[in-house]
Design brief:
With 488 residues, the chain is α/β, with parallel strands linked by helices. It has 3 domains: 1-63; 79-196, 2-Layer Sandwich (Beta-Lactamase), CATH 3.30.450; 200-487, Rossmann fold (3-Layer(aba) Sandwich). It is built from 20 helices and 15 strands. The chain has helices at 10-16, 22-35, 39-46, 51-62, 66-72, 87-104, 140-150, 199-202, 212-222, 239-250, 284-291, 307-317, 332-341, 346-352, 380-385, 423-430, 435-444, 450-459, 465-472, 482-487, and strands at residues 109-114, 119-125, 128-135, 162-170, 173-184, 187-196, 227-232, 257-261, 272-275, 298-301, 322-327, 353-365, 371-376, 392-397, 409-420. The strands form 3 sheets. It has a 7-stranded mixed β-sheet with strand order 9-8-10-11-7-12-15, with helices on both faces. A 6-stranded antiparallel β-sheet has the order 3-2-1-6-5-4, covered by helices on one side. It starts with 9 loop residues before the first helix and ends with a helix.
């Protein structure tokens, strides 16, 4: 069973032991933010701690014995791995520790990256990669082999990519770990995606950061008996979470819910889930065609990737089924445009698509350390936020504290835009209106863009302006106006 309490930071351990002062710790943290090096290495470099003191603190933090720490952590001038009966146990303990650490910190991915002079381990937290460990290069083979064994992969195959999975339990919580290996110039790189299999089953739409305006628009779509609802956004934008939460909302004993997915990321009680198997000839199109003979009420297609799947999905939506699926497009109007470019006729899109949800994930400001500041019109942020000349607006910036691991952010939240295909928009679509014309008409009918939703949440102190700018730059005309950029 894993301990879910927040881990004690190594700097706090050293300060509590009286080895360093709080001012020395703050100095080291500031330098670490600039250099992105592990804190222990920074402290040793500043001369505030010795190698021996750091090893003892690492042992306390990782709950390892000192001998194992010296065998796994990158420190100067020590014997890294000894040929002994304890070597295998040390690697097993190290891999288990990394998995536990990733779960405790709420990481979404773990990266094991071979380098010329080391073996780097990083965690993706709140969408950003952060360094965890820098291991000696001669540990790479043992660590990768251990992960392969755990995920039932071929440890002898190092020339080709492999995919596997392994379960991880943390008390009442269960995680599904997706493992991907890739040969690189310095050896095999491994990425592990952590999926909390129980989290999605507990979600409600009200928990997904929809504004009251957007939540009402989405629920309006979900009341329809047939048609298609699309969720769009880039990889890692939370589409799967939204899709499964919508399925949860629609799931009851009076309906037959069936899915075709690649892969099945979360298992839902009462939902008939089928996985794509291309080797056996089970593609999205083949599976979707078969689902139509299973008397479904609601069909979920994990992703519409080609014209054949799109045609079957449109046909299903027009013949009495509610179809849910995802696309990779920048915004909601782009999903309609993508269908047409796939070869679907505008009249088919107009008659089948009910609405499109576009979304992005931005980092949530740490509520304990965020600070307000004033944004003036004569700045890039002010121009982006629409601050009028001579005026200013209050937004919030990240600062950094112990609770957010000095990043200024703690978790993520979604920003959305929801396009509803009204009678007017369907007419425009039939007349082959451009994407800009559709966007203008949708705005007149109440659609708030991703940028607008993001700015509203930044104004509320939920996220920062730079985060909204990063996520929605493609919607901001100022980024394409070179005359404005020259003035900043």
């Amino acid at each position: 069973m894993l301990n879910q309490s927040p881990p004690k930071m190594i700097g706090d351990i050293l300060a509590e032991q009286g080895i360093i002062t709080r001012s020395q710790l703050e100095e080291a943290l500031q330098k670490q933010q600039r250099s992105q090096e592990p804190l222990g290495r920074v402290l040793v470099g500043l001369g505030y701690v010795t190698e021996h003191q750091l090893v003892e603190a690492l042992a306390a933090q990782y709950q390892f014995v000192e001998r194992d720490i010296r065998q796994t952590v990158d420190l100067p001038n020590h014997n890294l791995i000894r040929e002994s009966s304890g070597e295998e146990a040390s690697v097993i303990g190290l891999v288990q520790h990394i998995l536990q650490k990733a779960v405790r910190l709420g990481a979404s991915d773990i990266h094991f990256e071979p380098q010329e002079t080391g073996f780097r381990v990083r965690l993706r937290m709140d969408g950003i990669l952060r360094p965890l460990l820098n291991l000696p290069v001669n540990m790479q083979a043992a660590v990768v082999s251990r992960i392969k064994i755990m995920s039932d992969l071929d440890i002898a195959e190092k020339r080709l990519p492999q995919d596997g999975r392994l379960p991880l339990s943390t008390g009442s919580q269960k995680y599904d770990l997706r493992v991907s290996t890739m040969p690189t110039a310095y050896g095999e790189k491994v990425v592990i995606r952590l999926l909390d299999t129980g989290a999605v089953r507990q979600y409600r739409l009200e928990q997904l950061d929809f504004s009251p305006h957007n939540l009402a628009r989405l629920k309006h779509c979900l009341r329809a008996a047939y048609g298609m609802i699309l969720i769009t956004g880039p990889t890692g934008s939370g589409k799967t979470t939204t899709l499964y939460t919508v399925l949860n909302e629609l799931n009851n004993e009076q309906r037959n819910l069936s899915t075709i997915e690649d892969p099945i990321e979360y298992r839902l009680e009462g939902v008939n889930q089928t996985q794509v198997n291309t080797k056996a000839g089970m593609s999205f199109a083949v599976g979707l065609r078969a689902l139509l003979r299973q008397d479904p009420d609601i069909i979920m297609v994990g992703e519409i990737r080609d014209k054949e799947t799109a045609e079957i999905a449109v046909k299903a939506a027009g013949t009495g089924h509610l179809v849910l699926s995802t696309l990779h497009t920048n915004d909601a109007v782009g999903a309609v445009d993508r269908f047409i470019h796939m070869g679907i006729e505008p009249f088919q899109v107009a008659s089948s698509v009910l609405g499109v949800v576009a979304q992005r994930l931005v980092r949530r400001l740490c509520p304990y350390c965020k600070q307000p500041y004033r944004v003036v019109a004569d700045s890039l942020e002010g121009y982006f936020a629409g601050v009028l000349p001579g005026q200013e607006a209050v937004y919030y910036r990240p600062v950094g504290c112990r609770r957010c691991y000095h990043s200024g952010y703690r978790g993520r939240l979604a920003i959305h835009e929801i396009l509803l295909l009204s009678r007017r928009l369907r007419t425009l679509l039939l007349n082959r209106a451009t994407a800009d014309e559709l966007l203008a008409a949708a705005g007149q009918e109440g659609m708030q863009t991703l940028q607008t939703d993001g700015l509203t949440k930044a104004k509320q102190g939920l996220t920062s302006l730079p985060e909204v700018m990063r996520a929605t730059y493609f919607q901001a005309e100022s980024f394409f106006d070179t005359t404005v950029l020259q003035k900043m």
